[in-house]
Design brief:
8 helices; 216 residues; single chain
């Protein structure tokens, strides 16, 4: 049990750093002030978990009862803000392209991490036998923060238009939800998260997208 909790903490910490960086960078590109960067960065990191907790009636959400991930997100955002503030060349076209390639990988790790953590939280809350519910909670934990980020930034939510983002989360959530009945929970978690990461990286590399009603 202690090993599982340690793995959960590590996975969720990785996801927090990844999503906080993603949200902060969106705010920086929008030329928001320091408060705006902090709000978008922290919301992206912990917003999905907040939505999950509200849905299962875990109120107040864990982010208020145990703000360790809020603090981690805040530190991540501040570090990124200072780096960009002191080195404006980072926002140059070549630098930002390299950063975005790196962040795509980091974001994929975050999505995979939060998807399986969302399911594990639901299972620990006693909802393990409701597969549809825990899959939904896993996906909302994975994509909810980004959804809130895009709404606040005035953008069409990324999950609705780019590189099978939510679809990757759904695939990993389904795998984890069903595999945990047949194998060690940690192994099922790693397979679920790994599938999300792999799909996201391949989708970015090969520009996979779901079809739209109108042809471009």
């Amino acid at each position: 049990m202690e090993l599982q909790l340690s793995l959960l903490f590590f996975v969720e910490a990785v996801g927090t750093i990844a999503f906080a960086s993603s949200g902060a960078m969106v705010a920086i590109k929008k030329q928001l002030d320091l408060l705006g960067v902090i709000v978008l960065g922290v919301t992206t990191a912990v917003g999905g978990g907040m939505l999950r907790d509200i849905i299962i009636g875990n109120v107040p959400p864990n982010l208020f009862k145990d703000p360790v991930y809020v603090l981690l997100a805040f530190i991540t955002v501040m570090i990124l803000f200072v780096i960009v503030r002191r080195n404006q060349m980072i926002l140059a076209s070549r630098s930002i392209e390299m950063y975005e390639k790196f962040m795509n990988i980091f974001d994929a790790v975050g999505l995979g991490a939060f998807t399986v953590v969302g399911i594990d939280t639901a299972v620990l809350a006693g909802y393990g036998r409701y597969h549809f519910l825990i899959i939904f909670l896993g996906v909302i934990t994975g994509v909810g923060g980004g959804l809130l980020r895009d709404i606040m930034a005035g953008e069409t939510p990324y999950i609705l238009r780019k590189h099978v983002y939510a679809s990757a989360s759904i695939t990993g959530a389904v795998l984890y939800a069903y595999l945990q009945d047949y194998m060690n929970n940690d192994a099922a978690m790693l397979i679920g998260a790994g599938s999300v990461i792999l799909i996201r990286i391949l989708a970015t590399r090969y520009c996979w997208n779901l079809p739209t009603a109108t042809k471009k």
